[in-house]
Design a protein that fits this description.
Elements: H1 4-8, H2 21-28, E1 31-36, E2 40-43, E3 51-57, E4 59-65, E5 71-78, E6 84-85, E7 99-102, E8 106-112, H3 113-122, H4 124-162
Antiparallel strand pairs: 1-8, 2-7, 3-6, 3-8, 4-5, 4-7
Helix pairs in contact: 3-4
Length: 163
Amino acid sequence: MIEPVKRLETISIFAAFKNDRPTLDKIAAIMHVEHFPQDSYIIKEGDSGEVMFILNKGTIRIEKETLSNDKFTVVNLRDDMNIFFGEVALMDNDVRSASVFAITPVECFSIRKTDFERVCDADPRIGYYVIKEIVKSLSGRLRKTTQDSVNLIAALISDESDN
């Protein structure tokens, strides 16, 4: 198991504090260790959530549901990939946009929104840099989704014109 502070050093949304042990200690102090058995859900799409997770040990699958309620795999992720998920829960109270499934037994560090807000109230610099990195991550995902949509529409138009 990687210790909480060592894991935080590898997670992109905490990059501003990679060499700032006192700040990493503040964040690590609000983290909880959670275990999930193999073949169980960590997060279910559509559920409300107020916790983000950092994958510390194991392999997970990100799943989405289609309009016909079929599940499809978006990606499989391993602990050596420095993965975090559910981070939007630190900023809002909306529902989960995907499911996260434990392929193997999984150990995560969790951070609750209320604990994160308390730390940010005491040190707004932490909130600023973490939220900035979350927004950068979300912006990248949005750009990819937009490009995927353009590619799909172009493929559909191309198929239509070929007929």
